[in-house]
Design goal:
By secondary structure, the protein is of the alpha/beta class. Among the domains are: 276 residues, Vaccinia Virus protein VP39 (Rossmann fold, 3-Layer(aba) Sandwich), CATH 3.40.50; 60 residues, no CATH class. The protein contains 19 helices and eleven strands. The strands form two sheets. It has an eight-stranded mixed beta sheet with strand order 1-7-5-4-8-9-11-10, sandwiched between helices. Strands 3-2-6 form a three-stranded antiparallel beta sheet. β10 and β11 form a beta hairpin. α2 crosses α7, α5 runs parallel beside α6 and α10 packs parallel to α11. The longest helix is centred in the C-terminal third of the chain and has 25 residues. The chain starts with 34 loop residues before the first helix and ends in a 13-residue tail after the last helix. Bound molecules: S-adenosylmethionine. The site of S-adenosylmethionine (SAM) has 21 residues, from α5.
Length: 495
């Protein structure tokens, strides 16, 4: 099994997976084993936390070239250009991991190997969908994003997290929020993740302030598409993060049990992961990690947002495979929903996994019988109930139905049967009871009425003229015959 990236079309050509180069160095799981327990991580890929400040200092005096990108739903997010990353690698040359330099510079169109580089330098298509979905979540207040503890799993260029940071600063929201940015490669964190967070924050500064922070007597160039990382800019970034109670935590290295232990202390309640389920080897690790991390956070509510292509041709990962796997390991604390995005030939999906640690525990430990008054006679009441009440009854019945069938009361069975198979929603019959006979009598009445009306009008009409009776017609025919009238040559011959 293998996995490859081409770098010829640098910005968005993330469909270049193929099946040639990868050596899988991790173990596969059998059906009953936990992937987290069997997934082997090499010592050099063990997860490691890094200080934001230290990474920022490595960027001092670097000019970041950037561009703005618009998501399918029209939201703007800024991103460091890939050629600029390569430029920095070339300039630093010896200090940077030689394998990475070889991949990105010497083999410009190189395939990228599993366990060396996993595609983090490019922004993948679904990360833009994730940005749109996050905008929706914030806008509709579906989850308190600005006061949550976020993990972007396999962040790469971290557009979703960068967007959240930008929005938080635009809103001047001061609730405590943390973001753990994790990627397989430390260099990805250093060269694109952190720069993108910095750029998106800087985009919220008034232009005079940005000018003041990024220029001095020596570096007086100020361009639209560039940000010079000065000491003043780094200090201001740190100061403003503190003011708005934001902490950024960086973790490099591989997913696995140890990774989950490293992030556990952050009480993650919102996980974002874009384009990380492409490999059948790591897909179960991603699925189990999402469950494990949300459960261990001990928070009342949690949410995971996974953006992915429906199918990763050549490498085996897919949305269906992920959903099947996750559904096989989840319990009633988790609710999985998936929606498809069909705006190009390559279909994509957004999977939401809600975690309800508090409510489900209560429901699970004491799933009380639903009273007859509450769920009785649903057939006559159901369609008049408000949508929210219908949803509550469905959820409560679902919890009850997790018990053995014989423990359900007759009213519960009847209600469950009606909701599943009853005549409502799309199964509602075309005609309500009595409607057919009503239609029959209305149509019959109309026909009889029209006949009566016709007869009435006819009785009032004048007598027809004498020239229209039979006798007149016959005499007229005889006359024409006697005159040898010819229907082809006309009456002129009669005279
Ligand atoms: C295809 S890229 C997607 C990057 C980014 N999320 C996006 O959508 O643009 C896959 C990401 O998952 C990370 N990744 C893949 N396998 C990993 C592993 N075993 N451990 C940690 N990170 C991994 C890579 O470093 C990379 O950033």
């Amino acid at each position: 099994m293998s996995f490859a990236f081409g770098f010829t079309n640098e910005d968005l050509s993330d469909d270049d997976l193929n099946g040639n180069n990868t050596k899988i160095e991790t173990t596969q799981t059998s059906q009953n084993e936990s992937a987290l327990d069997t997934f082997q991580v090499r010592p050099e890929h063990q997860p490691q936390a890094h200080s934001l400040n230290q990474i920022l200092r490595t960027l001092e005096n670097v000019r970041l070239t950037l561009d703005n990108y618009t998501t399918p739903n029209g939201h703007i997010v800024y991103r460091r250009e890939l050629f600029d990353v390569k430029h920095q690698i070339m300039m630093e040359d010896k200090d940077v991991s030689s394998k990475l330099s070889e991949l990105l510079i010497e083999r410009n169109d190189a395939d990228v190997q599993s366990n060396v580089y996993e595609g983090g330098f490019k922004s993948w298509e679904c990360s833009y969908d994730a940005v749109d979905e996050i905008h929706e979540i914030i806008d509709k207040n579906r989850f308190p994003v600005f006061s949550s503890s976020i993990l972007e799993l396999g962040c790469g260029t971290a557009l979703p997290s960068s967007f959240i940071l930008k929005q938080k600063f635009e809103d001047r929201n001061q609730q405590a929020m943390s973001i753990v940015l994790s990627d397989f490669n430390y260099d990805v964190l250093r060269l694109v993740t952190v720069p993108n967070m910095l750029i998106n924050w800087a985009s919220t500064l008034p232009v005079e302030e940005l000018h003041r922070l990024t220029t001095d007597d020596v570096n007086c160039r100020f361009e639209n598409n560039e940000v010079l990382v000065t000491e003043a800019l780094i200090n201001e970034f740190g100061r403003q993060l503190q003011t708005l109670n934001v902490s950024l935590i960086l973790v490099s290295g591989s997913w696995g049990r140890e990774f989950n232990n490293v992030v556990k202390g952050n009480k993650i309640d919102f996980i974002i992961s874009s384009e990380t389920i492409y490999s059948t080897t790591t897909l179960p690790v991603v699925a189990e990690s999402i469950k494990d991390i949300l459960e261990k956070a001990g928070t009342e509510h949690g949410l995971a947002l996974i953006a992915a292509k429906n199918i990763y041709f050549g490498v085996g990962g897919s949305v269906i495979e992920f959903l099947t796997y996750f559904n096989s390991i989840k319990d009633s604390h988790f609710k999985v929903e998936s929606k498809e995005i069909v705006d190009s030939s390559l279909r994509r999906s957004l999977i939401s996994i809600g975690y309800d640690g508090f409510n489900s525990t209560v429901a699970k430990s004491a799933p009380r019988t639903l009273s007859n008054a509450y769920i009785g006679n649903l057939e006559s009441r159901w369609t008049t109930l408000p949508k929210e009440d219908q949803q509550t009854i469905i959820e409560e019945l679902k919890t009850r139905m997790e018990l053995p069938w014989k423990e359900l009361s007759p009213a519960e069975k009847k209600a469950a049967y009606y909701i599943s198979f009853g005549e409502w929603g799309p199964r509602r019959p075309l005609y309500a009871p009595g409607e057919k006979s009503q239609i029959f009598w209305i149509v019959t009445g109309c026909v009889v009425g029209s006949i009566a009306l016709f007869a009435g009008i006819k009785s009032l009409a004048k007598k027809p003229p004498a020239s229209l009776n039979r006798e007149w017609q016959e005499k007229s025919d005889e006359y024409l015959k006697s005159k040898n009238a010819n229907p082809f040559s006309g009456y002129s011959q009669i005279q």
